[in-house]
Design goal:
Layout lengths: L11 H5 L12 H18 L19 H37 L4
Length: about 110
């Protein structure tokens, strides 16, 4: 018969620093950077919808209409954001999950 040792309870101050402010704003600088980048990408993606910027049929860069080029540019920024987030944050979660599945034994 084995007895599992319970982890020591953390003090309230240590416990609060692990969670985002108001449940959404990350505490780390890198996390805040990704949050701001995502918000900017959402705003950029919606600008042509409200006819503010990027919604015209004039020929622009590479001979493409401005709307098409703008859409490709915002899509590319979103792809870069996703890749950067995965490389900085996603791989750590994968490693944590694999460690939990194996019980911490490598």
């Amino acid at each position: 018969m084995t007895i599992d040792k319970q982890p020591k309870p953390e003090s309230a101050g240590e416990h609060e620093h692990r969670y985002p402010l108001l449940g959404i704003v990350p505490r780390s600088g890198l996390g805040r950077f990704f949050l701001v980048w995502a918000a900017i990408n959402i705003i950029l993606a919606l600008l042509p919808v409200f006819n503010i910027y990027g919604n015209s049929n004039e020929l622009g860069i590479s001979g493409m209409p401005t709307t098409v080029f703008y859409s490709y540019a915002v899509f590319t920024l979103n792809c870069i954001l996703g890749t950067a987030y995965f490389l900085t944050r996603g791989l750590a979660w994968v490693e944590l999950n694999e460690t939990a599945e194996t019980g911490g034994v490598e």
